[in-house]
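Students often ask why we bother predicting the structure of a whole assembly rather than each chain alone. The short answer is interfaces. A chain on its own may look different once its partners are present, and contacts between molecules only exist in the joint model. In this exercise we take three input lines together and write out one structure for the complete complex. Read the inputs first and try to guess which parts will touch.
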Amino acid sequence: MLEVQGLQKSFGGVRAVRDVSLRVAGGELLALIGPNGAGKSTCFNMLNGQLRPDAGTVRLDGRDITGLPPRVIWRLGVGRTFQITATFGSLSVLENVQMALLSHARRLFGLWRPVAAEDPAPALALLDRVGMAAQAARPCGVLAYGDLKRVELAIALANAPRLLLMDEPTAGMAPAERVALMALTATIARQSGIAVLFTEHDMDVVFTHADRLLVLDRGAMLAEGRPDEVRADPRVREVYLGSSH
Amino acid sequence: MSHLLVQGLSGLASAASLFLVAAGLTVIFGVTRIVNFAHGSLYMLGAYLAYSLVTWLPRGHFPFWGGVVLAALLTGVIGVVVEVLVLRRIYKAPELFQLLATFGVVLVVQDLALAVWGPQDLLGPRAPGLRGAVDVLGERFPLYDLVLIGIGGVVLLLLWLLFQRTRFGVLVRAATADREMVGALGVNQRWLFTGVFFLGSALAGLGGALQVPRESVNLNMDLAIISEAFVVVVVGGLGSLPGAALAALLIGQLQAFGILVFPRITLVLVFLVMAVVLVVRPYGLLGKRPGGHAASVTLPEPPLAGLTGRGRAVVALALVLCVVLPPFLGDYALVVLSELAIAVLFAASLHFIMGPGGMASFGHAAYFGAGAYAAALLVKHAAAPMEVGLLAAPFAAGLVGLLFGFFCVRLSGVYSAMLTLAFAQIAWSTAFQWVEVTGGDNGILGVWPSAWAVPKLAYAYLSLALCLGGTWLLRRVIFAPMGYALRAQRDSALRAEAIGIDAFKVRWLAFALAAAFAGLAGALFAFGKGSVFPTTMAIPRSVDALLMVLLGGVQTLIGPVIGALAYTGLHEQLVRVTELWRAALGAIIIALVLFFPRGLAGFRRA
Amino acid sequence: MLTVDGLHAHYGRAHILDGVSLTVEPGEVHVLLGRNGAGKSTTMKAIMGLVPPSAGRVTFLGQAIAGRAPFEIARAGLGYVPEDRRIFAELTVEENLECGRQKPRDGQRPWSVERVCELFPSLAAMRRRPGGRMSGGEQQMLTIGRTLMGNPRLILLDEPSEGLAPVIVERMAAAILALKAEGLSVLLSEQNLSFAYAVSDRASIIEKGVVRWGGTMAALMTDEAARRAYLSV
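Now the answer. The structure tokens for the assembled complex follow.
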């Protein structure tokens, strides 16, 4: 599904990411972990189009998407959630999802027919999948943080994505919510064959839900493999996990 | 050769005066992040104070220069009074409200100056011993202008020393970069802000005072200088003192030599340069991208809701009144009614980009004027009937909006506001200077409606129908996907991009749409008055639109309607009851900003 | 010396601090440990008044300081060294230090440019250099020096070792110990456990906006369960 080859990026002479390659298959959850400043965010932003890599290629289903702007990458089937939630605060939960649907249908520039006249069923179905249908009428600006994360997931699912990029999906959430959100994500990914790439600091979440792990350190790949393999890797223990995990 | 040298020198002289004013403005902005519209008023006060002091004091070198310096210091004190009474309370308010408050100060100062010094131009004494001219390679150059150049240089040097060599200066530079950190280091920002205001105001006052021997002192000095000072500050980079000096030199020379090369477009030239600079370097020649450490807090807006029972009833009642009432009104009332309708559409069109769009336009009058001029030119040069003019106006204004908007919607905040202002001034200068086509200052006369619409009653119905119809169309767009996309990109640019919304396109289209409706309002205005003048697109009209929208409240759809009615009504009433209507209006604006920072309609909701 | 009691703070809609409580004794170095995003920086900002606390009390030298303006809190004797350093890039080293200068306090040797240069000798050679043209380590020294110029009684040091080369980190540790020897109290936030161990007397571990563990540094080093529960990333 997603294939990344030899990604590189420097900022003012500092090599933030050097030679990162990875693959994620449909229905698979890959966690990108590593200490602060290891290059996770830079890597992520090159995949979603916010940064242009100095070298390397990003392919989605064999198609080269390197350096395309985020909105084009979205159209090609890549949904995103943000570390600090980004939703439209003055729109209701339902309208947030409807905007993604309207955009997907390329009907954003409609000047006449009110949005309220749209059939709410497809958006409600998406909200139902993430357990937010009951709150569809509430403004996003007043939702609890955990609920906003769910709305983001519903928005990300609106264009039937093939790949989900989730930047610290559980940051700022209570522990119980974290597990629930990632369990939900895993279920949806497996049901629909969506590839999921996420960064995460909560190792409980990582070891419970990721199929594979990729460990970055100082911009380079340190290790890659199944959770138990990575957990046993002495280099990973040294720079990142410490003696306890 | 000598001719060019003299041009260069007079360019330097205007650069020196410009620099004094712009330096104060840029320093105040750098530290307080307030775009001080009242800076021009302080300049004007400096000139009036110097006029009074210098004519009152005995003649001689010492009294003259003493009077000038005293006028500057007094202006500084006035600036401090304004800061303490008004601005100190609104440092955390949204930028546009701050701007509005400083515009309130402009109005108050205008009337105070009128009350104290009267409406006539005042010609002050020449500077003692500097009446003559010097010989520069065979050409005569005023001695006083030479001194002015020297003063500009000395002030630049003194400011440089102040900012490089004193603790105050170091703190001001630090606060310009990161004022929150300066506070965390134990520096009382209030004191620093007040000090900066004193300095900036005194510089404006000095700039004004030094003009007394050159030109007459009058009540138009404030807005004349403020738009030039804005240009200098924005071209140099907001908050950058060296930038202001560089830009003042550039603009001064441009004005001096522009007259030689392009005598017909001197006014346009300056704003054209500003527009080009902002397009190429969005933060000015020496400006920096503003840091993210000081954000104003805005409350989230509630989702859109259609009208419910009571709202529908009120709207229906208002519409019925609009249909039933006019036949019972006198001619004067009918004219006012037309004007109210035009104001509503004009405000609604600006609200469309400011509210749902989250963009600020400081030059919305350009599109109002574009519509008015398009209609008037068709009538005048193509002998077209009113109906054609009214139909063509929105298209013409929309095209101007597409052109200007292409550049403006890329920027945000103050920079976007300044670029819209620059474009509006380009439009204004074109109308003012392209005499063959637009008639220049004399305007275009004889822009009368078709015969059927000449009676005031018919014209009132026409205005009501078109303006209320236009407002309703805009409302319809707000409820359609386009309006939602507009609000979406305002709420979160990041999320909008992530779901495939092309924010630039959405903003651009919205800008053009708003321009088109403003153009319709402008055309109706032109036919209502029977004439068009460059003032149709001057700064005060842009400010009118801003005031209407901000008074009504940006966050509600009914806001612009209420704001337009309240402002236009208030305006009419104040003009009738008091000579000092500007001061009263200014005071009301300031009070509203201080006590109802979310606008009238916003207040009602809260 | 500094008592924080039930401090709450929000960032937008996210509840970052959920009742943080801790105490810093005179002359001690107290470290705030925890994972990324646990609330360490926000705790410091809330103490300093840069993030308005939504609830809770902060007492410093007997005065209640929660809700006061940052400049008043700084003048009360609390110094703040931000994580992102926030050097004034266009100002020289000397000018940066000048911004931090405040009146000397009774019974305390006042800080001066010279004294800061004694503490960080590498700054002495670049007194006229703009802050923006310094390396990360030099900027870190400058930001600490700038705060010291306010003659604080206690400094809040937010992740001073972050992004620095190991040699510089060692120098930072030495500087912190030197400051402690002068009687200055320090509230440090860290992710680097070995750095924290080298300089700190006591530790509080913060997780999801609450202090979960408190005790001496020595106790923490023997309490493997606590380290595993809260610190292993």
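Check your guess against this: Residues 95 and 128 of chain C are 8 Å apart (CA to CA).
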